[in-house]
User: Fold this.
Amino acid sequence: SQQGEEDPQALSIQEGENATMNCSYKTSINNLQWYRQNSGRGLVHLILIRSNEREKHSGRLRVTLDTSKKSSSLLITASRAADTASYFCATDAGGYSTLTFGKGTMLLVSP
Amino acid sequence: DTGVSQDPRHKITKRGQNVTFRCDPISEHNRLYWYRQTLGQGPEFLTYFQNEAQLEKSRLLSDRFSAERPKGSFSTLEIQRTEQGDSAMYLCASSRDRDEQYFGPGTRLTVT
Assistant:
């Protein structure tokens, strides 16, 4: 079963605009991770945010975590065509830290 | 290249045949995971190794699936008597303890 639910399912923007993707989950977590996947390829790790953290930055990426609402958001600022990909949130809910993924958000950035 | 590698990248097989995939994790990573991903879905967990011990298996992992990680290094995932429903991308990931999981490029299996 999938714990994370990304929203929206698809997002289409112009280069230079910001893109925001949201993730909701159901159970308590140790950490939440965001991944990017280009068409038909493996997943690239973007950012990990632990349950005791509220916000994290990495380059043009900003991730927030609200454990009271069981939700997270990923903001990509000043998007580029190369950001076109599917973005997944994945939760580590304890045990052996196996990840539970959502279905992803497909982001299309047009030049 | 010091990332996670998987072999083969693509495999086409006929229903009923056995297939085996290999994963080479990042060398200092003690944890290794297998996931399966079908079109339009996120990856789903299959099984987990800590060093050479297989510590967790998903209910998705039927009796036809077996995985090994001899000596805590590379891992193999074997599917016996393949079925069309086994067609998917099989992803391997590794991590050091509870840190980020790094994924390999995947093996795309097509069962005809």
Residues 34 and 89 of chain A are 4 Å apart (CA to CA).
